[in-house]
From TrEMBL:
GO function term, MF aspect, one: hexosaminidase activity
Protein name per UniProt: Beta-N-acetylhexosaminidase
InterPro entries hit by this protein: GH (IPR017853), HEXDC-like (IPR038901)
SUPFAM superfamilies: (Trans)glycosidases
């Protein structure tokens, strides 16, 4: 195992409990940074005592600490390699970070995303969002690698849930197509038609080249583990968008089922019955799709179906 990632990001409650406060007061000069760095160094030293792996950690908890102290007192430059993460379309906010980290950390990583970062309840795959992030990272590596002895490479991340309290977002079968396209883009160093051709081949698609649009990848059938789940989820997204547009854009809904009508329980039954028929038709369509999707997901995630 060449690398071991200890996480260490978004630790917002550091120094908030009495045990932390007592330790800071007695041994660490009441320094929150020292408390955090001491803990990180302890974890990293433990990993090094058990394996020869290089220890990685997320960069964000190091952004505001005194880098001189981190190195002089805790030897973090020898213990860890920061992984700079950013999942946005543009990485402009990182421009100053490279210069800040370079004198202290000779080895650096980047972290992009292929699924799960487009919203905590985003259940479908929006590949253009993730592709833009990976293309931006490719540009950042080309531009800033000279600051470091080693720009090691990229870690391409994905979530199924933002935390234990949040709902599920993009499941792995839904994100596999995005994973292939973005992995190929990073490996090749750019995004072009060859990525779409190789992606179609790897995912066993009926066409020779993938077609990316706002709904993910549409216009061709592909066969890969979980492909039916992927196709049904994308179909569900497209149908929900179409149905919402048709219902709320309907003149009968706008004219006779407005907030005013609902508030006063007052409408024209003729139009109400017409709207009812339209809604029932769409409900049947969605019911069939959801029932089929439920059966497909059962083959992969038993617990997910209940959620």
């Amino acid at each position: 195992m060449p690398y071991f990632h200890i996480g260490a990001d978004e630790a917002f409650q550091v120094a908030s409990c009495m045990k932390d406060i007592q330790l800071m007061n007695e041994k660490l000069g009441f320094s929150r940074d020292r408390l955090m760095l001491r803990h990180i160094a302890g974890i990293a030293n433990h990993v090094h005592s058990q394996t020869n792996a290089k220890v990685l950690m997320w960069h964000d908890m190091l952004k505001s600490v005194n880098k001189t102290m981190a190195i002089a007192e805790y030897k973090l430059d020898e213990l860890v390699e920061p992984v700079v993460w950013d999942y946005a379309w543009r990485l402009g906010q990182l421009d100053l970070l490279w210069k800040d980290f370079a004198p202290s950390f000779p080895n650096i990583w980047g972290a992009s995303v292929y699924k799960g970062a487009d919203g905590p309840s985003r259940y479908y795959s929006n590949i253009p969002v993730y592709l833009q992030n990976n293309k931006a990272w490719q540009g950042a590596m080309d531009q800033h690698h000279g600051y470091f002895e080693n720009f090691r490479g990229m870690i391409i991340c994905g979530w199924q849930r933002y935390d234990h309290f949040a709902v599920l977002c993009e499941l792995l079968p839904v994100g596999l197509m995005s994973a292939v396209i973005n992995f190929l883009t990073i490996r090749k160093g750019c995004f072009d038609d060859s990525v779409l051709r190789e992606g179609a081949q790897l995912m066993h698609c009926e066409t020779q080249q993938l077609n990316i649009n706002a709904e993910g990848v549409a216009g061709q059938q592909c066969v890969f583990p979980g492909s039916l789940v992927y196709q049904h989820v994308q179909d569900l997204h497209v149908n929900l968008g179409r149905i919402e547009k048709e219902i709320y854009g309907d003149y009968r809904v706008q004219g006779w089922l407005s907030p005013f009508n609902i508030k006063h329980n007052y409408t024209q039954n003729w139009y109400l019955n017409e709207v009812k028929g339209m809604v029932q038709m769409h409900t049947n369509t969605l019911g069939t799709l959801i029932s089929s999707l439920r059966s497909l997901i059962l083959n992969i995630f038993i617990i997910v179906v209940r959620e």
